[in-house]
Task: inverse folding
């Protein structure tokens, strides 16, 4: 094929980011400092309605530190989805607690409140739902259940910068929320994460944990980690904050076109959006029925030069690293999603010609399978 390959995701790094890195490098101030503090304040103002943001070196670090700061540890259980990236359950295990897998609802691939209810035991400390693909989890049901039973909510907002439920931003719903700044996310700091904290004491503990347990140098108050964000990464994040709003709007425009052109194709289901939700389309994830998903993915790549990803092909409860926590789990919607989901390009770098090729390619590949 003569046309350039269209990747499923594409980080956008421009001259502004390069200049910001050079500025920090030439300053000689590289460790966590004023640049990180400015990034935290700007992220909070833009995405969190002013809620405290604490920057760390990765989303997974943020999730782990948030759990520890929230008091999760040995003897506790945290209910998590199995249909997501393994970092969710990993962070629970690394905090010393036990992940308990619950099934998802089929429309948005997020935790099903009724399946969560069935998974609760006397050891349950909290629920960690994921705003998957940029669509919020079903906040009303999860919040009602948590309130009824006195459980905490810990948000995984790794893919949800700017997403909202009934106008409430992702990351402001639980005791803490975690955002990832990995290169393929809707915005990046090259690497990094943000912990959004509901309480000042929790935010202070996260700050201590990220910096060897210190607020004042050499006055270690608790045992901590080295999970700081560098000034270089924060500088990149600050530049990206100025651009991510328009990138998100472009993702939404791209998704609207895909909806209009793909809805009704035999064997394909476009992603529905809940009326309460603001979807930021980290991924545009369709369902491909009848065991055709892998054929469609491969044909898009090989015949049309279109990249598409499967997020996630192996449910967490069947991973060798985590299956010991759910040896007899029955999660039918999770298993079905793992066999049917396909994420096609929606990122803001797509041209009109790129989108046309994605649409035409899907039509052709689906027609060839009939």
Result:
């Amino acid at each position: 094929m003569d046309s350039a390959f269209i990747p499923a995701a594409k980080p956008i790094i421009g001259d502004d980011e390069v200049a910001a890195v050079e500025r920090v490098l030439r300053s000689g101030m590289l460790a966590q400092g004023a640049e990180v503090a400015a990034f935290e304040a700007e992220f909070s103002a833009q995405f969190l309605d002013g809620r405290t943001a604490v920057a760390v070196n990765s989303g997974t670090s943020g999730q782990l530190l948030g759990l520890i700061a929230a008091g999760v540890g040995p003897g506790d259980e945290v209910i998590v989805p199995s249909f997501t990236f393994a970092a969710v359950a990993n962070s629970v295990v690394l905090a010393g607690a036990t992940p308990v897998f619950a099934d998802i609802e089929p429309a948005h691939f997020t935790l099903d409140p009724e399946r969560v209810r069935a998974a609760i035991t006397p050891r349950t400390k909290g629920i960690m739902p994921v705003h998957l693909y940029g669509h919020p989890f079903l906040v009303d049901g999860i919040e009602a259940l948590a309130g009824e039973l006195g459980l905490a909510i810990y948000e995984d907002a790794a893919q949800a910068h700017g997403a909202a439920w009934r106008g409430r931003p992702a990351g402001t719903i639980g005791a803490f929320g975690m955002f990832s700044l990995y290169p393929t996310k809707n915005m990046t700091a090259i690497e990094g994460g943000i912990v959004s904290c509901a309480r000042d004491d929790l935010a202070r503990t996260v700050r201590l944990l990220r910096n060897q347990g210190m607020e004042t140098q050499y006055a270690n108050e608790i045992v901590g980690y080295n999970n700081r964000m560098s000034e270089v990464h924060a500088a990149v994040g600050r530049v990206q904050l100025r651009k991510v709003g328009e990138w998100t709007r472009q993702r939404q425009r791209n998704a609207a076109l895909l909806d209009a052109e793909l809805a009704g194709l035999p064997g394909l289901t476009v992603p529905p959006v809940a009326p309460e939700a603001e979807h930021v389309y980290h991924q545009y994830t369709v369902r491909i029925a009848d065991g055709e998903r892998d054929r469609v993915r491969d044909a898009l790549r090989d015949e049309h030069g279109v990249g598409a990803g499967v997020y996630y092909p192996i449910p967490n409860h069947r991973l060798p690293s985590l299956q010991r926590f759910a040896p007899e789990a029955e999660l039918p919607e999770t298993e079905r999603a793992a066999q049917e989901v396909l994420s096609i390009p929606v990122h803001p770098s797509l041209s009109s010609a790129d989108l046309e090729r994605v649409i035409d390619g899907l039509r052709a590949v689906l027609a060839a399978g009939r």
About this structure: The mean pLDDT is 97. Residues 317 and 327 are 8 Å apart (CA to CA).
